[in-house]
Every structure is written in C-alpha cells, then in structure tokens.
Amino acid sequence: MSNYDIDLDARSMYRTLLQGGLALARTQTGYGLVAMRPEAVRRIYELKGRPAEKPCVTVGSMPVLDDVAMDIDPATRGWLAHAAARWPMAVVARLDPSSRLLASFDPYLFGQCTKSGTIATFYGVGELIARAAELARAEGQLIVGSSANLAGTGNNYSLDEVPECMRAAADVVFDYGRAPYSSDDKLASTILDLTTERFLRRGMCFAEVEASWLAFQASRGELWAA
After folding, report:
1. CA-to-CA distance for 71 and 141, rounded, in angstroms?
2. What topology does CATH give the domain 6-225?
C-alpha cells in the first residue's frame, strides 16, 4: 500500500459520498460500489440489476457494530473482533432501534440496508474504505455498498474485471490493484448470521472462519459446563 495515499484518497471518497456520489474501490475480496445517499444506492441496484429485496451491506468496524447492533454478548463480540481482524467476513446481527448511526438513514436507505430487524456489516473492506467509513462514523454517518459485479456473476478481483458500465458510472474510482483474496470460483465473503449462529454463505476463508467459530462455540460450552 506504500504507493497509495490512503488518507488523501479516503477523504476524497468521503467527500464524494457525502455529496451523493458513487465510489468504486477495492475491498479485500474484490471491487465494490459504495455509497451514503439514497440516489447513489439506487444507482448501485440499477447498475447491478440487483433485486430490491436483497439488502446492501454496511461497512463495519467494532465501533460501528456496537452502535448499530444489539444482543451480542461480550464473548461473541470478542471472537468477532479477533476473527474480523484476520479474515474478510460479514455478519448479520439484530439491529438496535436506538442506534445513533442508523438514525442517519432516510426510510429508503433503512429499508435497503436492513432486513427483518437485522443488519449486515462487512469486515474486510480494506484500509481505504475502512478509513472513509471512520470519517463517516465520526460525523454520525454510515457507508454502505455492494460488490461491483452484475447480480449473480461473482466477485471481480481487479478493476479491469469490473463491467465498464460500473467504471463509467462511478463518480470516483480507486484502482488499488488486485484484491488480496481471490478464487477461481469468484467467491465473495463468508457470512455468519449471529441471530441464528449459522453461516449464510460459504465464501472466502470459510474453512478458517468456520473452524475458529466452532472452536469458540466449543470453548464457550466447556465454560458453561464447568
């Protein structure tokens, strides 16, 4: 990352998103489209051909999770902090109706970024998007997005794999090279539903995440038994 001015790019991204723009940038598992305002989120759905009933993910961090989610016990939070620092992944959790950050969403954004009282937060966005999201959080805002691919076609790991229509439509594009994690199957991130304690998607690094989760569950069971 030494060839990139991440702080400068993060501030440029954040300014663009604040003004209703759409950004195209690399996550750890491929390029993604990120937004903050309703008009930009609508463009994501149009560009991808994504069904409206499929929600966008929210760029996550532990401070974001602490604000937007509820019913996560300290042990599970500790496991997630450890796992998310090691592997790209997303989690679904019960949303907190009193969230300060979710209060920044208008009804359309709230509807497209939550589902049945839950919210999906994504860890593994890479340093650029993570820094932009921290700028947003500091001002009571959230960044949301989706992978930069046509619906159902799998992740794109380098910028030249992203459809031209998306590259042209983005208001700002950050080429940070190939994603650190990639696969021949064009896998996205692994998703764990914390409300059911089940995996919703077997994606990148699934074996490692599952093994860590099962070990955590086993250790927790041993503590309860004791």
Report:
1. 22
2. DHBP synthase (3.90.870)
